[in-house]
Fold:
Amino acid sequence: MLAYLMHRSLQMVATVFIISVIAFLVIQLPPGDFVNSYLATLSGGDQITQDAVEALRAQFGLDDNLLVQYWRWISNLLMGNFGISFQYQRTVLDLLEERLPLTLAITIPTALFVYALAVPIGIYSAVRQYSVLDYTFTFVGFIGLAIPNFLMAILLIYVNSTYFGGNVAGLFSPEYELAPWSVGRVLDMLSNLSLAILIIGLGGTAATMRVMRGMLLDELSQAYVETARAKGLPEWKLILKYPVRVAISPVLSTIGFTLPHLVSGTEITATVLNLPTTGPLLLNAVRSQDMFLAASIIFILSVLTVIGTFLSDLLLVWADPRIRL
Amino acid sequence: MTAEATTSEIGDEGAVAVPAAVGKVVSPARLTWWKFRRHRLAVASLVFLIAAYLVTLFASFVSPSSPSTRSRYLYAPPQSVHLFDKDGTFRGPFVYGYRMSRDPKTMRLVYADDPSRIFPLALFVRGETHEVLGLFETDLHLFGAPGGYVFLAGTDAFGRDMLSRLLHGAQISLSVGMISVLLSLVLGLLIGGVSGLFGGRIDTVIQRIIEAIIAIPTIPLWLGLAAAVPRDWPPVYQYFAILLVLSLVSWTSTARVARGRFLALREQDFVTAARVYGAGWFRIIARHLVPNLMSYVIVTLTLAIPGIIIGETALSFLGVGLKPPTVSWGVLLQEAQKIQTITFYPWLWIGPAACVVSIVLAFNFLGDGARDAADPFSR
Amino acid sequence: MNTTPAEPILRVEGLCKHYGARRSMFQAAAAPIRAVDGVDFAIQPGETFGLVGESGCGKTTLGRCIARALDPTSGRILYKRPGGADGEEPVDLATLSPSGMRPYRRDLQMIFQDPITSLNPRMSLLDIIGEPIVINGIAKGRAVRDMVADLLEQVGLRADHMTRYPHAFSGGQRQRIGIARALGLSPRFIVCDEPVSALDVSVQAQILNLLQDLQASRQLTYLFIAHDLGVIEYICDRVAVMYVGQVVELASNEALFSRPLHPYTEALMAAVPVPDPAARREAAVLEGELANAANPPSGCTFHPRCRYRTEACKTTRPALREVVPGHFVRCHRAEELTLAGPSDYVAREARP
Structure:
């Protein structure tokens, strides 16, 4: 277990390193440097002298070579100094602290929702293969996979406003928008969040359900299931006791693929629904080429994803002693 | 559907001399096709996709007008095609003209059918001149309403025909999927092949990089990369830049599959046999490895296209992908950023949304069927 | 080492194939796996030389090194083309570069165990059998077809099958296709890597007979790898027994089967089932498992499983010695032990 932990942690460090390089590339890619973009955002009337521009460049160290710049960026990052968003004129860390909790508050429940829903449905679909419900789930699953999150969000906004006259965008309904905290306001927020979770979770559920169904179908055709049946175990008990336990580990280990999708979905859905997560912030940053902010968000989201995958892997290893490398 | 890489390299001139085989010769490609054919939904999807791509190819002919032609009917809802007029007389296919008025409270334009104006629809009508496949110019259109107007999918804020815009948008959206996937194919085969064939340290490094890319949430990464595309670039450059951005993520799945297959095939005895009879590495890769992994790669690619189409749509929708005057489904969906548009002019987003969803759905079914058929020798 | 006067077609000297142990960041570099660990023997032209042992003993690796499907770690593989000039020096195949190996590829071919994976499923028989002919420049175009047709008939298939694909054939037929592919280059020496192990017993005999017929008509020399002693006894002239990467016994077919000198050979022979329910024999069964080639036991590698072991066996590694002329064995106690061969069982049971 310790060796596995060591191995996995080092692997994670390597992954995080590569992610940091990619995030740094995102900063470097836009043509010109961000002093140019910064100047572009300043009011056009001011004449900025060449000296001032050079001073700005020197201040941000843009004249050093790439390696030095990367080193400065990453070492600052590791110290918790994420740089400054010139668009908001605030530290990136400040902005992240404000926005990140909501991203997590949507993504984590969505992940739980996806597995809580997909696993039972997958089991049912496998056990009752080719039943009416199996076909229904499969059909709904395919549709769910085909509708991108943001279209689903648009659809829900439309349905809600046309048929229920409500407005689902934003974290709060208009009447609670400026109201002080109260039970009603919390419930209102939760109802709006649950809509987001539903939208994001649909695609993930559809995919995971298919995996669970396939895995369990493979297991159900194994001889040991036949043996257990011959022993006279009740069918449901038998299925839950043996094949499901075998099939569920690889399904849960798909979290490494699911989590990035969910984070991705959270960000774009939040943008459509106008929820104050890091999503709209990132979009703004990207639009105004506020690259330090953009790269920090990408980096933080990816690292959190990696950590999430790591934690769930550890849980899985702890629960299932077969998986050990 | 299948990688038909099984053509003989040995003297065609002898083909006639082969004695007629007693039984029918079944090639692996044919076996794959038979297996694929059993998946009805996949076959239907294939037909649908071929039709969609054909229509897209001739979009300027199929659409009644150019995507940028404006009319005085702003935000007009889709007209419906009628066969009988209000009196029940058969008139052939026709549409009613609009009766425009303004809602006194909201000041929005309101449209209703004008029963006094009937525009019969006709096939092969003359209209605006357009270029077909960049080869020749013509003013012939598949259909139209001579002497009137026809907006089967409604119009947008500038009175432009949504149907024409959807069809032209398909050219961009569908080609992004295809070209981007070809790029991923080349990248994935190359990198996955290097990883699988050489192994060792190179393999480890490549695998780590792939894992890292997979761990990064796609949309944020795409957003970050798309930000690098200069805004003042001409549309064609932007198109290829976005294409590149989308491919940068999707090659990883191809590379994984290619690597796995290379690793598995490398150990097969027919590869050893080829080495023993003196086949060079290039020949072994080209004639023995690649034909045997192509079907798997094609499946991965088929399943990757929907992701890329959705990616382009999402980026353009968010305003960081393609931008007007380029027309793509994502660009059309930008309209749906405004709540008013979503609720009051639903045809502006339902059209492109339905296009995206149906194409993605078809590719998913196709990929599903292709996956089952990929290995014609199993069961 | 070999005392027969005729010049061998192939002489293997101290051949080793070690697989580098996988080095990970957290484990100290493990010892390499010694799949083949210092093998010497010589094969005469026209003979069938058997190589027998449990799975994992290194016999397949050895065969692949000789055909240069694998690059040996060290040692020499001296090949002398039969009918060459008298003073011609044998060539060391082990050190030849891929391009230097090219002219000898035609002489050395291989037949594989698995009839499924040994044929490319996406090539027709014409391409499978024709490719070696084309790339070695033996024939072109139309002539390749004629050659393939001829080869198919030689291995007992029909010429008009050449447009078909491997999936249309049974295991035995596919093995014939593999043989035709090897024959296309008119080789002198064929490494047969368990060519009948994956086949039904009835088909095994057909393939073995085909191999024997081809050997007679084409003056072939075989290195015949198998784990089935019955097959070995049927087809081989001389036999080497391998254990954990080394030859432990080497003798003519008759000598080996009538009087094995190594306890491992005895145990292998005792494990062959006798189709007689009344037969009872002393158990010389093998205990334990094949030793780990990465960490072979001290002394004689067979000692942990040997029922005749002494203290000396645990410490000193025995050398391969010629105990009887032409009969080599790697055992300290070869002279003192009297081991049972299969004939003993039959003889003993014949007595009431």
User: Anything to note?
Assistant: The mean pLDDT of chain B is 83. The radius of gyration of chain B is 26 Å. The interface with chain C takes residues 5-6, 8-11, 13-14, 17-23, 25-28, 31, 268-270, 272-280, 283, 287-288, 291-292, 376-377 of chain B (CB under 8 Å).
